[in-house]
Structure formats: C-alpha cells, structure tokens
Amino acid sequence: MNKLEIKTNFDKYIKTFLEENSKINLMSKNDEKLIFEKHIYDSLSIKFLFDKLDMLPKTILDIGTGGGFPSIPIALEYPEIQVTGIDSIQKKINAISNITKELQIKNIEFIRDRVENIKDKKYDMITSRAVAQASLLIEYAYPLLKKDGYLVLYKSKNVDEEIEKAKPLIRKLHMKISDIIEYSLPLEENYNRCLLVLQK
Fold first, then answer.
1. Are strands 108-112 and 59-63 parallel, antiparallel or unpaired?
2. Cα separation of 115 and 121, whole Å?
3. Spatial CB neighbours of 62, under 8 Å, sequence gap ≥ 6
4. CA 18 to CA 10: how far, in whole Å?
5. Of 72, 93, 98, 165, which is the most buried if we count CB atoms within 10 A?
C-alpha cells in the first residue's frame, strides 16, 4: 500500500493536543513524540478506503473516540464531512472539545454517552479505533448505520481471529465484509495495521 498523501498541516493541532494531554492523560507520554506517525497517520489511513470507494461519506460516527482519534484528524483533513465522536468519559470529551474549539473546527461534535443509548440518528459511516472486539462493535454500530453504510474498524494486522468470532453475527445481520485494507505506519519498527470494512 502506498504512503498517504495528507493535505493538512497538523502542527497547530499537535501543539494544542499536547497542551491538553499535559492536563489529562489522553495518550501515554511515550507516544507524544510519535503522535503524527502512530495516531494521526493511522487515523487518516481511512483515505485508502475513500480512494477505493471514490466517494466521501457525508456523516461519520466515531465510537469510543477517546483522545479524538480518528475523529479529529478526519474532520481536519475533510471539512466536507460532518464527524460525530462519542465517548462515555466526560473528562475526555471536555478535553477534545477544548481542542476543537481552540482550532475552530466547525464540522465536528462530541456526545458524552454510551453508544448503545443512541437511537435517533443514522450515519453513512461508523469508525472505531482501539476500542473493542469486532463482534461487539458490529452489534453497537449496526442500528446506527444507514442502509449500504460502512463500518470501518481500525485493527492490528492479525484480525483473522476476530473475523472468525464475528462471522455468525455478520451473517445474522446480513452484513458483508467489503474489504480488509492493509497498511504500515511510517515507523522504523514494523507496525502493520489494517482497516476491517463491513457494509450493511
């Protein structure tokens, strides 16, 4: 897989993120030096999917948005997409809301709640990164996806076991595995990752 072409300059975002991270632990101190390579680049690997689909979703819900990955990098890189991040931890929501206010990002909002409590909205695409097993995320995401919408799970390359466990649920819900996109992070170590893409 080729390297990503990223349009946005993330310097101001990184500075603002690190200021918030000094007050509340959004990511480990060890990762701060590698925030672009490990977190921003990884978040924007969804570009590989957008390129394959040759389209952008109008709306994205990010389940378990935590420190704002992938929700904030996607919103910055794609101002035409309306992004919603949901997380159950209030202090994280407060911190990432401060970041988006500081950077005046207009196309993102955050909800402090558990995803299973959201009933009244449907999205073109749902993402989740480093949150839970695929089967659980499929269960949470399915009712919130529009017909033909995509669920995009950021996973390590060894995703086969999770797929096997999720297959009965995928069949039951009449979803399909639409793609598994493998890529590497721009690090000296061999950080292989993949996007597990399911369609409703």
1. unpaired
2. 11
3. 70, 71, 74, 83, 84, 85, 86, 126, 127, 128, 129
4. 12
5. 72
44: which 2 tokens? Answer: 């924007």
Determine which helix (DSSP H) or strand (DSSP E) holds 64, and give its type and residue range: none
Is 2 a member of any domain? no
| Within-domain flag for 5 | no
- Joined together, the tokens standing for residue 66 give 């935590």
pLDDT in tens, 4-38: 889 899 999 999 999 999 999 899 988 999 999 99
Instruction: Give the position of tokens 């680049």.
Output: 41
Can you say how many angstroms the Cα of residue 1 is from the centroid of all Cα atoms in its chain? Answer: 19
Residue-wise pLDDT tens digits, 52-87: 999 999 999 999 999 999 999 999 999 999 999 999
What's the CATH number where 25 sits?
A: 3.40.50.150
How many domains does the chain fold into?
1
Residue 41 lies in domain = 11-114+123-199
Q: What secondary structure letter does DSSP report for 173? A: T
Does residue 4 belong to any structural domain of this protein?
Answer: no
Per the CB < 8 A criterion, the answer to whether 70 and 92 are in contact is no
Report DSSP state, residue 37.
Answer: I
**Backbone dihedral angles phi then psi of residue 41, each to the nearest 5 degrees:** -60, -45
Instruction: Provide the 3-class DSSP secondary structure of residue 128.
Output: strand
What are the DSSP E strand ranges found in 1-95?
A: 59-63, 82-87
Query: In this predicted structure, what is the pLDDT of residue 37?
Result: 93
